[in-house]
Design goal:
The complex is a heterodimer. By secondary structure, chain A is mostly helical. In chain A, 71% of the residues lie in helices and 2% in strands. Chain A has a two-stranded antiparallel sheet. Classes of the chains: A mainly alpha, B alpha+beta.
Chain lengths: 160, 358
């Protein structure tokens, strides 16, 4: 299963990541903000799975840094977590890509839980602990969002 | 291009296995975090990254801005006229108050036995627009469209709106800055009660309509309706800016401390425009903390024709007991006096008040 990618694909990948970043930082009220999926991380997961040669780790690192700057987090926190899940997705892409979409969602759930756990650990280490279990809630909505993301982004390229 | 080869042809275009690349970026991240925790040279990295993130932040704030703009556009003639009349009325009242204020200032200066009236504390102010806000229980921040390059903003600069104190700048980028509001749980404001001069600390609650005063003794003299103003301690905020009104006090005899709540006067959630303040450094009530000088990369050295002179503290004689609040905080002169010696390159520092004193 390979991608027949157009010439501008790398640019396109970064554009979708920017879109994901915007969705991640748009201010939302109360519960919506808690349940908002980490779109940027999901986009990074998607491209790492579907196009493992496209440099998903660098993509995750760059957009993690931007998230750190916009969100005022420790510089490098989201960058590390995003690079980690991108690495995981790239290592396992042969395994996950051939699975039905439901099992892919499970993998996304695990990856997002790992992502949030890394953020939580770094938060705790750097002295601003935030231990509310609600911070893991977005992994669930993110996993539910996965089929939609696959449906949308899957239309932008062809697999054969 | 990069992934034309596809997943089965692993070593087609990218050098290094994913493991090596991940290790590389993980080490970079760890180094970044290590230095960021220590607040060192990463300030400048953040400064430039903030410039890179600014377009995204503007784009994120765009729907809100568009909504306001269209609301302004569709506002009816009648409501505009009504607003105009109200503003005119208010302007008249304020003009009267200002006239009274000038007389009071003169009288105050005379009572303090100063030969001439002090120069105004605020030497310059600039309006900034709010681009986006983040008002969660953990972070209460505003992003504004003024930074080092388009306004000369500096870190820990006080921000006010028409009604009271709003917060201070925590991160300053070239064209944008982030305000930490006084209601942010990580923020504490040194305040005093106007009625009796009792000093305390107002801590943010994470709720934009509430401040907490957790350090007042159970028998302290606080009443609902008391006005809190900045005390000038801490050297960030100038003394005397209105902050909040006490709304509720719970005195539990078992506890040593009263639980006091206050409502901020500034309309933190609804402000579209805020005001940045620059102070006359020679004024005895001016904030003494000059963080901007240390934390930012230099602006163009050529455009700073002598910032050392404007940043130097007042001569020792001009800040005597005339400012009751300021010396107690961080003694203005002793702390600031050695500064010229510790700053070897004053010519590179950003000039905060290019136009000088009035």
């Amino acid at each position: 299963m390979t991608l027949s990618a157009p010439r501008h694909s790398l640019l396109f990948i970064y554009c979708t990541a920017i879109l994901g970043l915007m969705l991640t930082v748009i201010p939302l009220p109360g519960l919506a903000a808690v349940l908002r999926p980490a779109f940027c991380a999901i986009v990074v997961l998607y491209w790492s799975t579907m196009a493992p040669q496209a440099g998903g780790i660098l993509l995750g690192f760059i957009f993690g840094l931007l998230l750190d700057v916009i969100g005022g987090a420790q510089l490098g926190q989201h960058a590390l977590a995003m690079a980690a899940i991108a690495y995981l997705a790239i290592r396992l892409h042969l395994l996950t890509r051939s699975k039905p979409i439901f099992q892919q969602s499970l993998f996304v759930l695990i990856a997002l839980l790992l992502y949030e756990t890394l953020l939580w650990a770094i938060d705790g280490y750097s002295g601003r602990p935030m231990n509310s279990p609600a911070r893991w809630a977005h992994a669930g909505t993110g996993a539910l969002m996965w089929p939609i993301v696959v449906g949308l982004l899957g239309r932008t390229h062809t697999t054969r | 291009m990069a992934f034309v080869g596809g997943g089965l042809n692993r070593q087609s275009s990218q050098e290094g296995s994913p493991g090596v690349r991940f290790a590389f970026f993980a080490v970079i991240s760890l180094v970044l975090m290590w230095y960021d925790q220590r607040d060192g040279w990463l300030q400048s990295v953040r400064y430039y990254l903030q410039a890179a993130a600014y377009p995204i932040q503007v784009a994120v704030g765009a729907p809100q801005a568009l909504w306001r703009w269209s609301a302004d556009l569709l506002e009816s003639r009648e409501s505009l006229q009504a607003e105009n009349a109200a503003l005119r009325e208010r302007e008249r009242q304020l003009a009267v108050e200002v006239a009274r204020m000038a007389a009071l200032e003169k009288e105050n200066a005379r009572l303090r036995a100063l030969n001439e009236a002090l120069p105004p504390l605020v030497s310059r102010s600039q309006v900034a627009e709010v681009i986006s806000n983040e008002l969660t229980a953990l972070r209460q921040r505003l992003l504004i469209n003024r930074g080092v390059r388009n306004a000369g903003a500096y870190r820990s600069q006080p921000v006010v709106d028409a009604r009271g104190l709003l917060g201070q700048l925590v991160r300053v980028g070239p064209w944008s800055s982030e305000i930490i509001l006084i209601t942010d749980p990580e923020h504490a404001t040194p305040v005093e009660l106007v009625r009796n001069g009792l000093r305390s600390i107002a801590v943010g609650s994470g709720n934009p309509n509430e401040l907490l005063l957790p350090y007042l003794a159970v028998n302290s003299d606080v009443k609902p309706g008391d006005l809190l103003v900045t005390s000038g301690l801490g050297g960030v905020f100038p003394a005397g800016y209105p902050v909040a009104v006490v709304t509720g006090i719970k005195r539990d005899p078992v506890l040593l401390l009263a639980q006091v709540r206050a409502r901020p006067l500034a309309t933190l959630t609804r402000d579209r425009e805020v005001m940045l303040l620059w102070f006359d450094p020679e004024h005895p009530a001016a904030p003494t903390r000059k963080e901007q000088i240390d934390s930012l990369p230099p602006r163009d050295a050529a455009t700073a024709p002598g910032p050392g002179t404007t940043a130097t503290p007042a001569p020792a004689g001009s800040a005597p007991a005339s400012a009751p609040a300021a010396p107690a905080a961080t003694p203005a002169t002793p702390e600031a006096a050695p500064r010229p010696a510790t700053q070897p390159k004053p010519a590179q520092r950003p000039l905060l008040r290019p136009e000088g004193r009035p």
